Write a sequence for this structure.
């Protein structure tokens, strides 16, 4: 029986890898995700406050820094707390999405992030819009701050977004000052993106990095990606390693816009 | 038949909790693998064949909700279930520390298998030092949740008939 199960598993892996996101394996996945989506919605509503508390407990180091900053902004923090921190954040994200100053010509569909990845080895989020809302694989996903990632799978009511910081994610970018084009990739377990840049390209800390839009990149050009936080080159190396901090914590967005998607009755 | 129904319900509950609740309970950005711990618990109680079978189904169900190739978790959970089942056959007695130790060890072995086999089937991003950190933390988390999952799994596969290959049937020394 063991051999049979192992052979079946290997066959499934082969089928899924070769189907390239389509076929029976994709149908099985999409059906399962659609079926579970009402449960995820309900559980998400209940667990969001618990998640905030748990997040606070497990990220105490970050909280210390945040506390110091909050003390300086005490008056503002009190007002924010009274109005509901979560509600304010959502409000801000929605306003930024409505404006989307860096991409005025790009339309899309707004969606809410409803799930985080249940896996330890992929950095994805689930959003509450799918093919019914015109979302298809490959579309870019942004917030008011900048690029979040791209859609990697869709069902009728759900889509999975591969975050910029996932190691499988690669983004063609250009540096704001030099205009040099490179590919930024995520690093396993890190919130930073890494690029190998030729030594003759001058890169400065704090420099903005944008999507290049160069063919064959699937991302439109000019979307803010992040800022350079580190430039390192080893003696004798042919290139320098540049680390880029995304402009937002890509896994912590609440509302996003799927660029290019359009619901019936016109796009937003 | 009732036992299979209970096991099916147990599996559905585990997968639902894994996909809806556990993403909210990340520690150091890592979630425990409930379906894997359930597989280990079933294998510990029922032996290698049942462990492998349950592992396959649990892994397949998990694969439906993650983005690594369909079948990868099924393969890894099948192997883990079988290994734990073989190990439990050599154990003479039960103790309070068995669930967390098996949960942790099973999590470690399964994580390493996932990274190794995943890399072989084209998931090169898994082959990184940071994956070891994730595997180690996840194994610790698995050890903790084993305290809860093992008793529930035991209830789910409880049978009125005689059990086979259960360590609790052994007399010890």
């Amino acid at each position: 029986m063991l051999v049979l199960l192992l052979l079946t598993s290997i066959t499934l892996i082969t089928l899924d890898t070769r189907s390239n996101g389509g076929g029976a394996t994709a149908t099985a996945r999409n059906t399962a995700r659609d079926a579970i989506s009402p449960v995820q919605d309900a559980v998400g509503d209940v667990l969001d406050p618990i998640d905030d508390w748990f997040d606070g407990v497990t990220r105490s180091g970050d909280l210390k820094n945040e506390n110091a900053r909050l003390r300086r902004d005490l008056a503002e923090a009190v007002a924010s707390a009274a109005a509901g921190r979560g509600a304010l954040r959502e409000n801000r994200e929605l306003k930024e999405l409505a404006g989307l100053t860096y991409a005025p010509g790009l339309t899309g569909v707004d969606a809410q992030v409803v799930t985080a990845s249940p896996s330890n080895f992929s950095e994805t989020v689930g959003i509450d819009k799918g093919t019914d809302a015109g979302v298809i694989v490959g579309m870019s996903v942004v917030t008011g701050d900048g690029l979040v990632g791209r859609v990697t799978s869709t069902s009728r009511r759900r889509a999975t977004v591969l975050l910029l910081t996932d190691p499988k994610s690669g983004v063609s970018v250009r540096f704001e000052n030099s205009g040099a084009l490179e590919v930024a990739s995520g690093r396993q377990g890190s919130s930073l993106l890494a690029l190998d840049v030729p030594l003759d390209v001058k890169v400065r800390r704090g420099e903005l990095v944008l999507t290049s839009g160069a063919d064959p990149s699937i991302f439109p050009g000019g979307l803010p990606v992040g800022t350079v936080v580190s430039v390192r080159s080893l003696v004798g190396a042919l290139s320098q390693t540049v680390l880029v901090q995304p402009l937002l914590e890509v896994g912590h967005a609440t509302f996003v816009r799927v660029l290019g998607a359009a619901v019936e009755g016109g796009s937003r | 038949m009732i036992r299979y129904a209970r096991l099916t319900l147990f599996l559905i509950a585990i997968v639902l909790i894994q996909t809806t609740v556990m993403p909210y309970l990340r520690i150091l950005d890592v979630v425990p693998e409930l379906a894997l711990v359930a597989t280990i618990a079933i294998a510990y109680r029922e032996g290698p064949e049942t462990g492998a079978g349950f592992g396959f189904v649990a892994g397949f169900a998990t694969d439906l909700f993650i983005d690594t190739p369909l079948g990868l978790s099924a393969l890894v959970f099948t192997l883990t279930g079988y290994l734990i089942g073989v190990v439990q056959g050599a154990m003479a007695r039960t103790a309070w520390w068995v669930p967390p130790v098996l949960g942790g060890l099973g999590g470690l072995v399964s994580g390493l298998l996932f990274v190794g086999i995943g890399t072989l089937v084209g998931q090169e991003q898994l082959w990184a030092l940071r994956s070891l950190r994730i595997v180690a933390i996840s194994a610790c988390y698995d050890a903790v949740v084993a305290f809860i999952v093992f008793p529930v799994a035991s209830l789910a596969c409880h049978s009125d008939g005689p059990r086979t290959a259960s360590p609790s049937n052994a007399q010890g020394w």
